[in-house]
User: Fold this.
Amino acid sequence: MKDHFNRLNQYNRWANRRVLDGFKNQTVPEKALALLSHIVLAESVWQMRLSEKPVSTGVFDVLSLEDIEDMMNRNEAGWTSLLEATEDFNRKIDYKMLNGTPVQSSISDVLTHIFNHGTYHRAQIASLLRQSGLEPVSTDFISFSRLG
Assistant:
């Protein structure tokens, strides 16, 4: 299971970086920037929860490209460290939703959620870019898998 999540982490890193790099070369709609901000902020929140730390950030702020890149760097290091340290992916964690409701999820479900969450919002970003007459980068998993 660790290998599976390491692979999804590599894909998530690659896809997020491609979107960020694409943003640097063009003026993008504010909503697209907000969605990329949301992706990295949500990843940060989930890392806090998995590390049993208090959540200290929201998930809907709009960050600058520089702040998004800084958060990506921190998130990437955090995912790598967390995945290396995890042996029991079925272990349940207790945490609170952003509205304060206490819940419990397995580590594997959280990881599956967060990597799917990024894919979902990257697709929204691609749609927004197309609607604005811009060409989005490909972030399909199969494209990533062909890299080697």
Summary: The beta strands are 92-96, 102-106. The two ends are 20 Å apart (CA to CA). The chain has one domain: 2-138. The first strand starts at residue 92 and ends at 96.
